TrEMBL record:
Belongs to the MIP/aquaporin (TC 1.A.8) family. It catalyses: glycerol(in) = glycerol(out); urea(in) = urea(out); H2O(in) = H2O(out). Residues 318-341 are annotated as: Disordered. The lineage of its organism: Eukaryota, Metazoa, Chordata, Craniata, Vertebrata. This is Aquaporin-10. It is a multi-pass membrane protein. It comes from the Eukaryota. Keywords: Membrane, Transmembrane, Transmembrane helix, Transport.
Amino acid sequence: MKGQTLPSKSGSAVLCGSDPQDDGVPALKAHSWPDGVDESSVMERLLRKCQIRNQLVRECLAECLGVYVLILFGCGSVAQVTTTQDKKGQYLSINLGFALGVTFGVFVSRGVSGAHLNPAVSLSLCFLGRHSWMKLPFYIFFQVLGAFLAAATVGLQYYDAIQAYSGGELTVTGPTATAGIFSTYPADYLSVWGGVVDQVIGTAALLLCVLALGDQRNSSIPHYLQPVLVGAAVLVIGVSMGSNSGYALNPARDLGPRIFTFVAGWGVDVFKAGGGWWWVPIVAPCVGALLGTLIYELMIEVHHPVIPSELQTSCQEATESKSEVELNGVEPDTEKPSSKL
C-alpha cells in the first residue's frame, strides 16, 4: 500500500505514519514542494505528459501488457510445478495458472484494445470484418513482445530454481529439461501432423467459446463476466486437451517464450526439438481459429433472426442513400418493375 501524503506545518509533505511529534523521531520526508502547490496535481501533470494519444499505440501497449500478464501467471505456474518436482503444484495448477492468467489479461486490456491476446484471435476478427487488417501486424508484434518479456521475467524470478533443478545445464529434452517451462513441446508419442490436428481442434474449440460469449444475440452475458468465462474455456481445454502438446492455442504464447529460451541459453535446440516442432504452435492455431470461426458463423450466428431495430436501421440507411442520390441531381428510375430484367 502506498503511503498517503499529508501537508506539514512547514509546507512540505510527510509520509502518513511518520509523525514528527512521536517519540522525537524525525519524520521521513518524501519531497518538498513550494507553498500552495499540491503534490497530487504535480504528479497528475507529470503523468499527463506521459499520455499517449495515438489510439493504435495505446491498443498495442494494452495487448502487450495483457499478454504479459497471461504468460507471467501461466509460465510462472509451470516453473513452480517443474522446479519443485510436483511438490508445490501439479498439472491442474498449470491449467489454473493459464486460465486465471487469461482472465486477468483480458481485464487488463479489454477496455483499450478488446483483449485479443492471441494473433489467431486477431486474425479471425479481421476475417469477420471486426478488426482492421492494417492493425493486425502491429497487434501480433506487441503480443509476441509481451510474451517474450513475461518469459524473461519468469526466467529471472526462477533463475536459481531452474539452475538447481537442472544441475546448471539448460536442456530442451531429458529428465531435467526446463525449456518446457516456457514453450510447448510434443509428447514422445505424438507425430508432427498429430500435433497439427491437436492444435487445430483445440484452437477451434477456443474460438467457438469466445465467439459464443461475445454474441449478445445468443446469450446476454454481462460484460464483467466474459473474462472469467473466457478463462474457464481455457481451463476446460487444458484439462481435456492438454496432454498431447501443452495446448498452446496461441502463436504469441509459444513464439515469444521460445525466442527467449533461444537467447537465454537453451540454444538452437528449442527450434529443433520434436522434429522441428516450433512452427506447429504458430500455424495450426491460426488454421484452427479460422475453422472455429467459420463453424460458429455458419451454424449459429448467421441464423439469428433480424431484430426490428436492425430493420429500422437498414431502412434508414436506404432512405438516406436515396436522398443522397436525389440531392446529387440523379433522377430516380421511374420505369415499371415489369420493364426491368
